[in-house]
Design goal:
This protein is mainly alpha-helical. The chain has helices spanning 3-17, 36-58, 63-76, 83-100, 105-113, 115-124.
């Protein structure tokens, strides 16, 4: 395994072992934490995605497989009703993308805002 793969494995292991949805991140320190009944299923999905990505990295998968893994995990999560929880979840999925070096912004925008608005956002950010 090369250095990049080792770095990815370390980043994913750290991500998986970190407690989530505690409002400790600077971007979310003003939020009131959602109850565990809301955040626990999301945390399980994120940790499972990290485990799946670890397996893909160990097998030497291509970046497209990483992105597909994140997309499948995101689709498996029942959308939380609270906008803040959805944004928080996207924050963590973006971190997973960063761990494996793939850009998942358009995917997250589509999940968060829907196809039409995410397309408008993509075009407006180009120029």
């Amino acid at each position: 395994m090369n250095t990049d793969a080792n770095d990815m494995l370390a980043a994913l292991a750290t991500f998986r072992d970190t407690e989530k949805f505690r409002c400790a991140e600077p971007e979310f320190h003003l939020l009131n934490p959602s109850p565990a009944s809301v955040t626990q299923p999301m945390e399980v999905a994120l940790n499972q995605c990290a485990t799946d990505l670890l397996s893909l990295v160990q097998r030497g998968a291509q970046p497209a497989r990483f992105k597909a893994c994140i997309a499948a995990s995101l689709r498996s999560v029942e959308k939380p009703f609270d906008t803040e929880d959805r944004e928080y979840l996207c924050y963590y999925y973006n971190q997973l993308g960063q761990c494996v070096g793939v850009k998942v912004g358009p995917l997250l925008n589509r999940w968060l805002y829907g196809l039409l608005l995410s397309t408008l956002l993509r075009f407006s950010s180009r120029g």
